[in-house]
Each structure stands twice: as C-alpha cells, then as structure tokens.
Design brief:
Layout (H helix, E strand, L loop, with lengths): L2 E9 L18 H17 L1 H6 L2 E10 L7 H14 L2 E11 L9 H6 L4 E7 L3 H7 L5 H13 L5 E7 L6 H14 L3 E6 L7 H4 L7 H17 L3 E4 L2 E3 L6 H7 L4 E4 L4 E4 L2 E5 L3 H7 L12 H6 E6 L2 H12 L6 E2 H8 L3 H4 L3 H7 L3 E4 L2 E4 L1 H5 L1 H6 L5
Parallel strand pairs: 1-2, 1-9, 2-3, 3-4, 4-5, 5-6
Antiparallel strand pairs: 6-8, 7-8, 10-11, 11-12, 13-15, 14-15
Helix pairs in contact: 1-3, 7-9
C-alpha cells in the first residue's frame, strides 16, 4: 500500500503587499515570475525518483502564496504539467489553488479545471469595502462576487472563502453582515481568522487600534453561531465546512501527515524531519540555475536550499501530536497516541488532562480529549500544558 503525501507549491508573488501580511510574498515582474516557474518545475521533476522510490502517492496539492492566480495560463500549466509528469497522484486527490479576487482570472478558470484543480480558496476577508481598503486589499466586495460567480459557472463545486475579524474599525454589526453575505453564497468551506499584527508588516510599524480581547471573543462566538445556523460545522478552531468538505490539506497538517513543499520558504515534514527551503528569492533562483540544478539531492545544493532542518525527537513528536491535534474540534485520541508512540497518554502526561477538565477547558468523550468552548477561546494556554520543559 502506498504512503500518503501532500504537496505544497509556493508562489511568492502578488500585485501589492497587504498591510497585515507577513507571508513570504512581494510584487514582481513578468520575467522574474517566468524564471521562478521554470526553476520550480525543475525542482519538482528532480524529486520524481525520490517520491516513487519511497512508495508515496500524492493525496492533495495546495498552491499557495502570495497570489498564485497572478500566474498566466501558460505558467500555471507549466507547473501542473511538471507535477503530473513527476508524481503518482491519487484519482480523488484534492487540488487547491489560492485566488485573489483582484486578479484577472475569468479566462484562467476553465484552464484551472482542465489542469485538475478542483478546489479554489478565495481571499475575501471582508464584505465591507472600507475594511478592505484599510487592509490594503486590491479588490472590492463586488469584485469578489463577480469572481465567485465566474468560478461557479466554470464548474467549481468546492470553494473556500477566507474571512478576517478584528479589523481596525470593524464592528460586530459589520462583521455579522460579512458572515451572512458569505453564508448566503453557500461556499463549501469558510476560514475565519482573527487579525494578528505580525512583525515586519505595515500594521506592525504603525499599529492601528484593535478590538480588545473580549470583543475578539465575541467575533469568534458570532462566527460559530451564524455559520452553524447556516449549515456549517466547525471542525477546527478557525475552519468551518459543509459535511464532507473539510480541507484535506489542513487536516494532513494538523494530523501530522507527511507533506513536501516546493518553492522559497516552503515547509516540509517527511520521515519525522521538518525542514524549510531558503527564503531569499534571488539565492533560490541562483542555486537552481544552469548545471547547479543537476547536483545530487544529497549534495551541496540540497544543503544550501534547505534551512531549519530538525530531526524531531519523540518528545517533540508528542508535543506536536497534542498541540496540532487539539486544534481539531474532534480532539485527540488516547488510543491513537498509544499506537503512535507505544506509551500510555496518562504515563506521559500524568494529571494534566484531569486538571484541564476540572477547569472546564477540556472534555473527555469516550477515548477522545477535546477543547470545550472556553478551551477554544484560550487554546494557546491549553496547548502550552502539553509542552515539555
């Protein structure tokens, strides 16, 4: 039986940088994007033998950024031709592409379908145009509605919409309006995140006034209330889906499945080793130019391309099992913990779950430990309890 593997492809280009964005992305020219695509394809093809030799099968592909929809039809075709030529892809694989409603995508949507892309992730953030302007988004709500309609007409039956709460100047009323407008469109999946000010962003340099912690909790509460009433179930702290439409890409990450990242800054987890590609675009392109791309994977090139290589200890694996697994509303299984590590959960974490249950932060249902509603509100505190000193 083949082992499951997920692919992540990073496209680090965008039209302009949003004020809150700390992702590895930046504006670029057409020539630079074309060179990047060619080097990305070269790297994908080079991994073909490794994937086959280890007996992997690709179960999901996620193209993220940046703004993948900035690529031309020819460029995205190049990328997917390389993927399909290089890897065994399961017939029912989930293949997602992130899209900015402010990019020109009408003629690209049929091409995406032909390439096997079967899921779109659309970054709306807000249905209020003033809030979008505050965030530095390049689209309006009306732009989003038009692109969403085109996507449905092109035959896409699995669409995610990204939303954001705690935007400067946002009120409960304006956020509720956003939730209801999006729920009325009936996308299969909605991701709803709270704005976090990250270092190195324009918001960090000139921090706006943000809602307080109590208001932030109210945002999360009305998100859950409205989306639940609209037929969505919360399967992870910030993610909601129609039945059967949970994002496989997300679940692989939270369940510590194996994934391989391509492109600058892309992260991987393979055979209990975490590593990331270098984050500097020019260095990445230089290393993959000419004959350099043909050096063995175990040689100097691979060492230069990678950074932050970490061979996870058993304790680190246990920590990840807990703080990633508890993000899922179904929680973690003690039996699965024992099957994975050969140790009883209560021996590794004596008394911790009992304490958190008494505090109303965890609940045990059968074999599983889950965050309560209060636990979801203070999830970082709960997860910290499962970190070893």
């Amino acid at each position: 039986m083949k082992k499951e593997l997920e692919l992540y492809l990073h496209i680090p280009f965008c039209v302009s940088k949003c004020k809150y964005c700390d992702f590895l992305s930046a504006p670029s020219g057409e020539e630079q994007r074309q060179i990047y695509v060619e080097r990305l394809c070269r790297r994908i093809r080079y991994w073909s033998d490794v994937i086959h030799n280890y007996g992997y099968e690709i179960v999901s592909i996620f193209v993220g950024g940046g703004t993948p929809s900035i690529l031309t039809e020819a460029q995205i075709t190049q990328v997917f031709e390389a993927v399909h030529e290089s890897f065994p892809i399961r017939e029912d694989a989930e293949i997602t592409l992130e899209m900015n409603p402010g990019t020109d995508v009408k003629d690209k949507l049929p091409v995406y379908r032909e390439l096997g892309i079967n899921r779109l992730s659309m970054g709306l953030q807000s249905a209020d145009n003033e809030e979008l302007k505050c965030l530095g988004r390049i689209h309006t709500y009306e732009d989003f509605r038009q692109v969403y309609q085109w996507a449905r007409e092109a035959g896409f039956t699995n669409i995610n919409v990204d939303l954001m709460s705690a935007i400067p100047g946002q009120t409960l009323e304006s956020y509720e309006d956003t939730l209801r407008k999006v729920a009325d469109l009936e996308p299969e999946h909605i991701s709803a995140y709270s704005l976090i000010i990250e270092e190195g962003t324009p918001f960090y340099e000139n921090t706006p006034v943000l809602p307080d912690e109590e208001m932030d909790r109210l945002f999360y509460k009305i998100t859950n209330d409205i989306l639940k009433a609209a037929g969505y179930h919360r399967y992870e702290i910030s993610n909601y889906a129609r039945e059967g439409c949970e994002c496989r890409h997300n679940r692989v990450y939270w369940e510590r499945g194996e994934y391989l990242g391509f492109g600058i800054g892309a992260a991987s987890l393979m055979q209990e080793t975490r590593f990331s590609n270098i984050r500097d675009l020019q260095t990445y392109l230089k290393l993959l130019s000419g004959e350099a791309a043909d050096r063995p994977l175990t040689g100097q090139l691979m060492e230069h391309l990678r950074q932050e290589v970490s061979h996870l200890t058993e304790r680190e694996q246990m920590e990840e099992f807990m703080f990633l697994g508890l993000r899922l509303t179904e929680g973690v299984s003690k039996k699965h913990f024992f099957k994975t590590f050969g140790k009883k959960f209560t021996d590794v974490y004596p008394g911790i779950s009992e304490k958190l249950i008494r505090e109303g932060l965890l609940v045990q249902e059968g074999d599983r430990l889950k965050l309560t509603e209060l636990g979801l509100d203070v999830s970082n505190r709960v997860m910290a309890e499962f970190l070893f000193d």
